[in-house]
Amino acid sequence: MKKKYQKMKKKNQKQREGAKMKETRRKGRMAGGILLAVVALWLILIWVRRTARDPDLETEPYASSVTEEKEADENGSAENIFKDVLLGKTPFFYVDGGELETLDVTDVPSLFDREDPYMKIWEFSVVDLDRDGEEEVVLLVVGASGDAGGKVILHQIDHKVYGYITVNRTLVDLKTDGTYEFSDPTGSAEAGIAAITNFSETGYVEDKISYATGTYEGWDAFVVDHQSASEDAYLDAAAQQEKKEDAEWHDFTAEEMDILWT
Q1: Pairing state of beta strands 160-166 and 92-96?
Q2: Residue (of 211, 182, 208) closest to 196 by Cα position
Q3: Are residues 16 and 125 in the same domain?
Q4: pLDDT by residue (tens digit) across 134-174?
């Protein structure tokens, strides 16, 4: 009888130990699940914070390396956005025939001549071209010949930078009020004074204010302030344009950018 009691006692003890081990394993699994959930939540929070702050995770050029503090300061943010693009820290949208292409500032010279190793950005100017109170940046690109190349305009729309190429005979003698001289490629069919209006994600509009048209033999028609005019009136308008203050051009260097945008 005593032996039977001892066997039952051992059996009950093993059952209790087995139940205790099961309970321990169950609690271990629960703790492990909680730990995994905490780790997963921690990784998600890190990813969200990094996505919000890391410019390399942005899907669009710009809005990028500007911090939240800079974005809050709208007067400074436009300058910092341009500076980041000019320093090659941020790409921009290049507008090509209504299509958009993402480029870096180092790609600009090749827009004019891919075969000229001496083609580069020599200078830049900061002018309010469309007279809306917000400045644009104009890049002067020159090749080995000294007169090849042209200019690229950088304009901001909703904190994004868009680039527009211009031909060599555009934005000549740029003035501080955004007006400039232009001519056709030959310089004999049309020449005059113009300004730029209506920048958009697909291009811009050139407003020809005063100009003369003709042939290689000479000018035969004139327009002043969008109205038909005499040659004398046109020459007077051209003389007045010459008296305007020239836009300031800066060497395309980081030092010049620091001086301009400090």
Answers
A1: parallel
A2: 208
A3: no
A4: 999 999 999 876 667 899 999 999 999 999 999 778 899 99
Question: Are residues 128 and 134 in contact, defined by beta-carbon separation less than 8 angstroms?
Answer: yes
Q: Is residue 22 part of a domain?
A: yes
Given a contact cutoff of 8 angstroms between Cβ atoms, the answer to whether 250 and 260 are in contact is: yes
Closest listed residue to residue 169, CA positions, set 205, 199, 201, 194: 194
173: in domain: yes
State the residue range of the domain holding 234. 68-260
d(CA 102, CA 161): 10
What pTM was computed for the model? 0.71
pLDDT at position 67 is 43
> CA nearest 197: which of 148, 131, 136, 260?
131
- Structural domain count, the chain: 2
Closest CA to 214 of 231, 226, 227: 231
104 within a domain of the structure (yes/no): yes
Rounded CA-CA distance 208/223 in Å is 9
**Is the pLDDT higher at 131 or at 75?**
131
**Same domain assignment for residues 212 and 254:** yes
Q: What are the pLDDT digits (tens) for 198-253?
A: 999 999 999 999 999 998 889 999 999 999 999 999 999 999 999 999 999 999 99
Average pLDDT for 53-78: 48
